[in-house]
Amino acid sequence: MSATVSLQQLTDQLEALETEAAAEIAAAADADALEQLRVSLLGKKGRLSGVLGAMGKLPGNERPLVGQRANVLKTQVQALLSERLQAVKSAALDARLARETLDVTAAASGVPMGHRHPLITTTEEIVDLFCGLGYRMVEGPEVETDHYNFTALNIPPDHPARDMQDTFYLKDNLLLRTHTSPVQIRQLEQTPPPVRIVAPGRVYRRDAVDATHSPVFHQVEVLAIDEGLDFSHLRGTVMAFLKAFFGDLPVRFRASYFPFTEPSAEVDVQWRGRWLEVMGCGMVDPAVLEGLGLDPERFSGFAAGLGVERFCMVRHGIDDIRRLYTSDLRFLEQF
């Protein structure tokens, strides 16, 4: 800008800027380009501000004329930017609709293949491994009585262990089972030892939904009752199963507490540099055997329970349990 400036010079610059702005806005291809133009034209350091910066060199009576013309230009540029933005958005939507339009009258090119849910395949693999060890699969009802879900498992009404499982109660002393352990009671009532069963099934607890919890999930119960069984048989069975499922991962047993087993343990595997709990287990409590009319001096046994979702998430590297329940084909097609 020269040392002196005239009203005509600034007016000519504003006229030229109006023409340039209209052409550049009309040529903008997308919203990002329009935003860059807005800043270039109307920003604090934009071209319009550059013209107005020289207005202070005009005589006082001429400055309002330049200011009025600049305000008109600013309003025009803003309107052009808004109109062009709507146009490019509409064009982008039209292009997307054209790309994604389906011809419903076209002949089918093939029938898409279905995919088995990863929870189903994980459950079947767990059951198959135990059946290979001589167990047989059994099932039980999901709507249980308080007796089978708690009392027969050495959890009387006033037992604090009931607080460990927030239960869905129904009418007539019924409830949604909180674990698959009631299946072992029902089987021992019907079948005398020796008994070796594996029982998969759905269970229910009043858990808040987050990345690792769901009010509906799946467990697998394992039970062996015979003469002469001890903790070494339990450990050997668990180690054989975990090695078959996970491979050669470090395994540790930690002392724990469950009302229906004594002694009890939780089992961890070392996974991605940290210990991860994968199941609980223990020797069947003599009180449970006595409640079923079995002599604990003659018979002994062990039980174990594991969560299918945990095994599935570890196996497939899934970071959020909610992905298993969305029925999202993009997720399921990976398996």
Summarize the helices and strands and which ones pair or pack.
Elements: H1 7-27, H2 31-42, H3 47-53, H4 63-100, H5 118-132, E1 136-137, E2 143-145, H6 146-149, E3 174-176, H7 182-190, E4 195-204, E5 216-226, H8 231-246, E6 251-258, E7 261-271, E8 274-284, H9 286-291, E9 300-307, H10 308-316, H11 329-332
Parallel strand pairs: 1-4
Antiparallel strand pairs: 2-3, 4-5, 5-9, 6-7, 7-8, 8-9
Helix pairs in contact: 1-3, 1-4, 2-4, 5-10
Structurally, the number of domains stands at: 2
Second CATH tier, the architecture of the largest domain:
2-Layer Sandwich
The profile of the biggest β sheet is: 7 strands, mixed
Residue share in helix: 40-55%
Distance between the termini: 68 Å
Biggest sheet strand order reads 1-4-5-9-8-7-6
Shape: elongated
Task: Work out the radius of gyration.
Answer: 37 Å
| Low-confidence spans | none
CATH topology of the largest domain: BirA Bifunctional Protein, domain 2
Structural class: alpha+beta
Series of secondary-structure elements, N-terminal to C-terminal: HHHHHEEHEHEEHEEEHEHH
Percent of residues in beta strands:
15-25%
